[in-house]
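Incident log, support desk, overnight shift.

02:14 A customer reports that sequence design results differ from what the structure should imply. Their input is reproduced verbatim below. On-call engineer (initials T.W.) acknowledged and began investigating.
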């Protein structure tokens, strides 16, 4: 496990300097409409079967000016499980996802109220560094985001170099480990110095996942990571997610009901900014409690 100095802020930027700019931006987060709880620790009750909450949101509301993105969402996120966020376009899934690692800090008109707890501590507390939070909670975006001017190798170890780590043996070790975790190493091991942008779309997405994994995140957020990929590449990413959940907690946004059913342990259904229902994926898909959930799952709208 790497120490905190070896962790990278994961963002959908084109150039490494953009990450450095964001490090300087950390003090200017979104406004909190109510005073955040700073230093307050919440000890969640374990779930059935002994599972614990890795994260939890309590009464989370995100606004863009006067527009509400999500409102009053209380939702547990269990350790080493896959939680799928489903719902029609514009329902608040991605807004909720971005709140989990303070990505709304980058939107000046955004305001966040309520709590987002990571291991029991509110990540929006006054004494919490958002950069450290993003190092612990990685994000993979809808489209692959390799740094186009960097080699495959340099893409993977970019975060380590950013914080001053130059020891070649460590960089080599991390690069190989992360690429193996992302199921990409065997395909690229003989061309690590080739441009990352030269890979196929599916390979680029796995490279983006490897870059996130290189810094040992505790949670991975995935915003429709296969929506721009072909079926074969989609299958590889889904297989990877199944493997990764043994190591990290995963929250994935998807519009694909079959994908949610295949991948997730639990599912949360959002509609017009509200969390309508959450439960085990089996229960949500076979015996939902809410009429709107059943209508969406059965394809009557959305």
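02:41 Re-run completed on a clean worker. Output:
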């Amino acid at each position: 496990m790497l120490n905190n100095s070896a962790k990278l802020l994961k963002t959908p930027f084109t150039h490494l300097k953009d990450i450095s700019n964001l490090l300087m931006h950390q003090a200017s987060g979104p406004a909190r409409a109510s005073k955040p709880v700073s230093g307050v620790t919440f000890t969640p009750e374990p779930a059935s079967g002994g599972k614990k909450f890795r994260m939890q949101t309590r009464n989370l509301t995100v606004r863009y000016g006067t527009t509400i993105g999500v409102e009053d969402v209380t939702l547990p996120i269990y350790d080493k499980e896959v939680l799928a966020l489903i719902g029609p376009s514009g329902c608040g899934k991605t807004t909720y996802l971005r709140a989990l690692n303070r990505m709304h800090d980058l939107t000046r008109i955004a305001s966040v109220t309520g709590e987002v707890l990571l291991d029991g501590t509110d990540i929006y507390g006054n004494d919490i560094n958002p950069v450290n939070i993003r190092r612990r909670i990685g994000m993979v975006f809808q489209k692959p985001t390799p740094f186009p001017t960097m080699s495959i190798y340099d893409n993977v170890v970019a975060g380590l170099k950013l914080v001053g780590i130059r020891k070649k043996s460590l960089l080599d070790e991390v690069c190989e480990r992360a690429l193996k975790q992302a199921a990409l190493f065997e395909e690229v091991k003989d061309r690590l110095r080739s441009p990352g942008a030269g890979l196929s779309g599916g390979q680029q997405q796995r490279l983006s996942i490897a870059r996130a994994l290189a810094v040992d995140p505790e949670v991975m957020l995935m915003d429709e990571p296969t929506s721009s990929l072909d079926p074969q590449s989609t299958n590889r990413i889904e297989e990877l997610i199944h493997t990764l959940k043994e190591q990290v907690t995963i929250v994935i946004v998807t519009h694909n009901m079959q994908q949610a059913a295949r991948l997730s342990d639990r599912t949360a259904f959002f509609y017009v900014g509200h969390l309508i229902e959450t439960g085990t994926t089996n229960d949500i898909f076979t015996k939902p409690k809410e009429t709107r959930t059943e209508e969406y799952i059965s394809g009557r709208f959305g």
